[in-house]
User: Fold this.
Amino acid sequence: MKSTNLAPIPELYVSSDSALKLKHEAAALPSWDLTPRQLCDVELLMNGGFHPLKGFLGQADYDGVVENMRLEDGTLWPMPITLDVSEAFAEKVEPGQDIALRDAEGVIIAIMSISDKWAPDKAKEAKGVFGADDLAHPSVNYLHNVAGKVYLGGPITGIQQPVHYDFKARRDTPNELRALFRKLGWHKVVAFQTRNPLHRAHQELTFRAAREAQANLLIHPVVGMTKPGDVDHFTRVRCYEAVIDKYPSSTTTMSLLNLAMRMAGPREAVWHGLIRRNHGVTHFIVGRDHAGPGKNSQGKDFYGPYDAQELFKKHEAEIGVTMVDFKHMVYVQEKAQYFPANEVPEGCTVLDISGTELRRRLREGLEIPEWFSFPEVVTQLRKTSPARDRQGFTVFFTGLSGSGKSTIANALMVKLMEMGGRPVTLLDGDVVRKHLSSELGFSKEHRDINIRRIGYVASEITKNGGIAICAPIAPYTATRRAVREMIEQYGAFLEVHVATSVEECERRDRKGLYKLAREGKIKEFTGISDPYEIPENPELRIDTEGQDADDCAHEVLLKLESMGLIKA
Ligand code: PPS
Assistant:
């Protein structure tokens, strides 16, 4: 494959005049709100990224794709692009009917003329497309647990491109890239697909690929949907932008691809090749474990490390793009240079840092050597994954009224503010009830709502890198657990049981409430006429008898330090 035909590729959009008319007509049609994944698919269907598809697959095409990677007419196409819908929606529509496809804001993106409606055999699809019906595969899990039970197929008419508010200047349709290559006179272009930040190994690999193919280079990262747990695309694009000027600008460009990946290894590599062909490239890099989903439920890799290269090679002529294959790149210490793993000079020391190790180093704030990555990339990654002592966390005090929660929480807040570095917010029981939960009483239902509100606010604070200190009674174990789960997705949760006995609280009776509760003047009073479920495994249990608030707060500080959340 020496050079490509850079003529425009067919798109599925109507002209702008007809679009307006069609949009008005479509307002009356049954509407389907596209899922994030379907929205990515629709964009690439409409702009020609999925050429020659003319819409979501009908049943005959789907069967062919699942069974032998071919549409009904024999064209190579490895990935079922399907419109999955709920049974409730499917019941309302029939083949022959048009439906409006809308984005999350309700904007009409396209019209689909339904040609097929069927309930797919998902286990068969999983085995055929992903090689195993194993829920450890993210797309198999999606297929069974997220996707709707019914598929609708049919051609679509594009009305407008989905709107993106981020990195607009870096997004190009296939025809925009084709036009750019035409303008630059780039007849040979090698594309590099990635869902990870670019480190030095990637740069070396792309340099070598461009040299080998004697081609220009397109860095073509996926910003649609990638593997759950990947670095988010905002961070990644900032990383790419930080290193793109390390490439020669006269032979390299970068463009973002709004693809929803399926992590289907070999089939995905073939699919990526077809998509890149549509974007006007001539060569495509396939490295080790291309689009690999990780381990299956038996702890084994779903695909062999070079299965993708084999399948791509087999179909190279039909894909219409030449593969540039690479072994895993490793750093050779003595040579201070990267080599493909199979070309390492004898007796040399090989250095490598896995993705897991990189994440550990980021989490613990450990060094990431310059041979591995660029300081600019590490700076961006550290901003999103700061070390533990700069991440948000929540300290959740629980205990009876008058146990000393508020006093200790206040002392802790002041100490943390004295240390500085992170904003500290105190969500005290009384204060929350005044500002957030003023309409609530003390029934179980109302207490649960109150605690969940506190949990939600604390989780937002934690997510945004702050420290939340909560001090409600929170008498129920299940609600405390729910709050823990809310917060632990963003940062650490430290449950502190202030274990002052009910007798001691009543003896102190600082607010005079126990007396009123005993007299029956306050109903449902925790510890007297309402339950308190003692936490079984709090991170810390504090006994306030014989200890002042300052000492108790210091105990919490020591615990935070031992958890790596604050530095001495
Ligand atoms: S809960 O159960 O977590 O929703 O309670 P919380 O929001 O922390 O509110 C506790 C404060 O409200 C006062 N108060 C009562 N507490 C317990 N039971 C009843 N029936 C009740 N009525 C009013 C009491 O002053 C609590 O304040 P603290 O700071 O805990 O002493």
Observations:
- The chain has a mean pLDDT of 95.
- The chain has three domains: 16-158, 168-257+263-333+338-343, 388-562.
- Residues 388-562 form a domain with the Rossmann fold fold (CATH 3.40.50.300).
